[in-house]
Amino acid sequence: METHFKIGQRKNRGFEMGENQNWRHIFTLLKLAEMGAHKRTAKISTEFLARKLGISQQSASRRLIELDRKGWIKRTTTPEGCLIKITDLGFAELKKLYSNMRFLMEASYPPSVTLEGVVFTGLGEGSYYVTRDYYRKQFMEKLGFDPYPGTLNLKLVTDYDIKTYSELEAYPAIEVEGFQNENRTFGPVRCYPAIIENKVKGALVSALRSHYNSSVVEIISPVCLRKALDLKDGHKVKVEVLTLP
Amino acid sequence: METHFKIGQRKNRGFEMGENQNWRHIFTLLKLAEMGAHKRTAKISTEFLARKLGISQQSASRRLIELDRKGWIKRTTTPEGCLIKITDLGFAELKKLYSNMRFLMEASYPPSVTLEGVVFTGLGEGSYYVTRDYYRKQFMEKLGFDPYPGTLNLKLVTDYDIKTYSELEAYPAIEVEGFQNENRTFGPVRCYPAIIENKVKGALVSALRSHYNSSVVEIISPVCLRKALDLKDGHKVKVEVLTLP
DNA sequence: ATTACTACTAAACGAGTAC
DNA sequence: TGTACTCGTTTAGTAGTAA
Questions:
Q1: Looking at the complex, does the CB of residue B100 fall below 8 Å from at least one CB of chain A?
Q2: What is the pLDDT of residues B88-98, one digit of tens each?
Q3: What is the dihedral of CA A158, A161, A164, A169, to 10 degrees?
Q4: What pTM was estimated for this model as a whole?
Q5: Which residue on chain A is closest to B161 by alpha carbon?
């Protein structure tokens, strides 16, 4: 069984709200479920649903039509009301919301935190480390991508970002093992999947024994971030760091 | 400690949506929590929030203003973004939704089911039973009301209602103990809190050894339901039966 | 960069009503 | 009773832009 975390396969925690009006529908579904429509076919009049939702009968009717069209409920209209059953597809939506919320309410850390830092050119060691085979294999296996041979160095400038980064250390990370070859020892590395500038997937990597202090972070990515995002030294970069479920 | 269930004190499972547009705000709160704003003051730009919500920056800004006004978040605007912390009040909203959902997803029965039946005049025994002191005391203690001396008899007419009622028997109920006096034995009674015709609180009572078959239910209430709802024999009545947490 | 105002557009809603 | 259509109203959302 694959227990390692891969970005490519990562289930989206955090609701996808691309087409965002789903909220109404989710809440309507929730109400229907409260009347038992997730377990059994429930007879629910549009008027009754309307009262529960605090909207008019007409709007309730329309929502049912929409839910039906989405395939989230199966609906049969009869002269005495609607027979409604939430479909597997609809129930899956509720489960998604529920598991999001469960994580939120029960984890001691947030699903994601955002850091901002300023690009600078480091000693060029990142490239050397990232290309060590023992590391590289683990990155591919555990992060799901082959890192571009180089790291993007970011200097955290505000107290807020430094504090946020220090809090991050308490959250679970993807642990990449250290190793040694004939010449020297390579320490373990902690990785957090991340999204850079809202666009590019990658990971924040944090060597346990870093040559930088705690106000510097290093980012790896399958692509060259400097090129992909047209970054130069001094540019400010936003990194959304994802914690682990 | 009071462990008995009382209708008057019953916590509302099922979201109250009197003023219903809270949905937007709850979802916005959810997103903010996903960025950690429930644990710590998070720096979140309206633009970033907007992307997460799938709405415009302007709308995100307005939602933050509204949440602030509701007292659900504490917000400080700075030139680099907003510093946002979800307040206890706001977090309570999320917890409410979460506990509703947990009950929904984890219980094997729905929070409420609705029955419809036709009023008929019974043998008049209901009044006798309800006024037996040993029962009456328990009703007051466990249901939180002193029942009007009489029951409303409803005949379930559709297969749907009869089936629903039979399912109800598997759900946990408020158990009222039986007893005996010098003359005879009074059996245990199972009660479910209920709302009659969307208006009046009461309870569905179900004697374990009923003289009626399973297509008849009896309702008690602090008031005379026939008077309060102007019911006559043959009228159809809707009863929303609440299951127990 | 940000936030958030005003003015306008689009979408959701509800009243009336047909069936 | 029920559901659900049309259509006018209300409300949420966006664009442009000032601070």
A1: yes
A2: 999 999 999 99
A3: -110
A4: 0.87
A5: A43
